[in-house]
Amino acid sequence: MNMKIAFLASRVESSREAQYTLTERYGNVPLAEADVVVALGGDGFMLHTLHRTQHLSAPVYGMNRGTVGFLMNEYSADGLIERLQYAEEAVINPLAMRATCADGTMHEALAINEVSLLRAGPQAARLKIYVDDRLRMTELVCDGALVATPAGSTAYNYSAHGPILPIGSDVLALTAIAPFRPRRWRGALLPKAAKVRIDVMEHEKRPVMADADSRSVSDVVRVDIHSEAGIRHRLLFDPGHGLAERLIREQFV
After folding, report:
1. What is the pLDDT of residues 87-143, one digit of tens each?
2. Which is the catalytic residue, given 43, 213, 219, 238?
3. DSSP for 104-144?
4. What are the backbone angles phi and psi of residue 60, rounded to the nearest 5°?
5. Model's pTM, two decimal places?
6. Distance between CA 115 and CA 119 in Å, rounded?
7. 93-108 pLDDT, tens digit each
8. Largest CB tally within 10 Å, which of 40, 120, 239, 245?
9. Are residues 72 and 109 in the same domain?
10. Domain extent at residue 143
11. Is residue 139 located within the same domain as residue 242?
12. Do 115 and 208 reside in the same domain of the chain?
């Protein structure tokens, strides 16, 4: 099979070396001509690649040249065409964030893992939470809060004691980060179609920043979040090591 592959590599030396080796063996076409994109790096580079290629129909197959590599496959220069032919596909939708700042400006970004609000000063944030235009929490005093996709539920969300979500579930996780009041509030599971709005109270005294996959906005007063069904990221995994299996396995470590 004449499969056209575009190899993208992070700036890490091992990724660049792998790109050279694979290009010599399999060729390397421009992104617009690729049947499949192979990302060489870690999870951060995979997120970067998915954002970069979201306008393309070609799926992305990651090969780990980083540290954790949760979204990546093991690296090997051998048998790549066969691995791509038999790979399992997972489709994920990103979150859309619209952040309104104190000066009235608005910033939009997409997040594959999570959208988070984080305190930007010495005092805890005071947040008010709406779901589908209905006030659900009048006050959450915390270091922050986040909304995570199933694909991102093992990342920051899991570190903040949020739940791991099955990849096929139409669910989002709303998780508090170090909540002070209500002290034992552990968050909520929301339908994927839910629209979340988080208002920042006393923003001058308790400044808050918003972040969508490392795209940060300072001094926010309101953040609106929803799943963007119109964008479909296609990820490829080796058989038996797909994203659904990884999410299950992560819970038994």
Report:
1. 999 999 999 999 999 999 999 999 999 999 999 999 999 999 999 999 999 999 999
2. 43
3. S-EEEEEESSEEEEEE-SSSPEEEEEEETTEEEEEEEEESE
4. -120, 130
5. 0.89
6. 14
7. 999 999 999 999 999 9
8. 40
9. no
10. 95-227
11. no
12. yes
